[in-house]
């Protein structure tokens, strides 16, 4: 059932507010992620059409929200991108094989695994914060962990958690961190990087 109401409160910094339903009743919480059109900044007194849902805490909130004059775009269920997940897993397996063959030290293997796990956890926390309207993790921090070696964990988190997987600008920078990190890794296993590898052993 679709309802209509007026936006009576909006916190631009935390990206959430409240709707007063036209038919009366309690004010309804709405987060920016509930809007179909996220490019438009909500303003007070905007007329909004929405559906009612429950968050993880069982509280009622708005979802599938549209501004007056807009049509609700049907959500298309997207399967996780197998390419980025396979690439991440294959990369970690390749590092382990190179360790067995003696090309890379165990410290480097553990560093990639540890950073990937930490990065996945950071993504999970950031998605939880986004859903609750809490203070978000800066995108620069997410990219920093990716370029440091946590990009496999970031890729898996983006696709399995469906977080940061649609924003084109973010995805572009993310793939740049992947290219840079893989390039640095390729240098490490080259003859030129052999001396540095010896220092890690």
Average of pLDDT:
87
| Spatial strand order of the main sheet | 3-2-1-4-5
Helix content range: 40-55%
Question: Spans of 5+ residues with little confidence (pLDDT < 50)?
Answer: 76-80
The total count of helices amounts to 5
The general outline is: elongated
By DSSP, the count of extended strands is 5
The SSE string, one letter per element, is EEEEEHHHHH
- The assigned structural class equals alpha+beta
Compute the CA-based radius of gyration. 22 Å
In total, how many domains does the architecture comprise? 2
Q: How many strands, which pairing sense, and closed or not: the largest β-sheet?
A: 5 strands, antiparallel
Distance between the termini: 63 Å
Domain CSD: 2-67
InterPro entries: Ca-reg_mRNA-binding_domain, CSD, CSP_DNA-bd, DUF1294, NA-bd_OB-fold
GO molecular function: DNA binding; mRNA 3'-UTR binding
Transmembrane segments: 83-104, 110-126, 172-190
Topology summary:
Layout: E1 3-11, E2 16-21, E3 28-31, E4 47-54, E5 60-67, H1 82-100, H2 106-132, H3 139-160, H4 168-188, H5 194-200
Helix pairs in contact: 1-2, 1-3, 2-3, 3-4
Describe the structure.
There is one protein chain. With 201 residues, the protein is of the alpha+beta class. It is built from five helices and five strands, in the order E-E-E-E-E-H-H-H-H-H. A five-stranded antiparallel sheet has the order 3-2-1-4-5, with no helix packed on it. The longest helix is centred in the middle third of the chain and has 27 residues, at 106-132. It is elongated. It starts with a strand and ends with a helix. Keywords: DNA-binding, Membrane, Phosphoprotein, Transmembrane, Transmembrane helix.
